[in-house]
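sanity check this:
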Amino acid sequence: MRKFLILTAMLALSCTAASAQQFPKLPNGPYAHTCDNCWFDGRVLSCTCRNRAGMWLFSRMDWGQTCNRSVANRDGRLVCIRK
């Protein structure tokens, strides 16, 4: 029984480490203040963002092809901040 618990714990730790490595860090930007439930797969950033009326809208953008800078929430839509 003890071996089973140790193996289960090791498996759980390895799965947690693997899942943490699968998804890169979220891109920088002020969108984080008005968007929630964001996830980023390295190419597409998806979030639920608040618009000016206070409604939450689902938004996504292809960050890898169109934006290599900061991201903002423009009235519920994720947009790249061009400098």
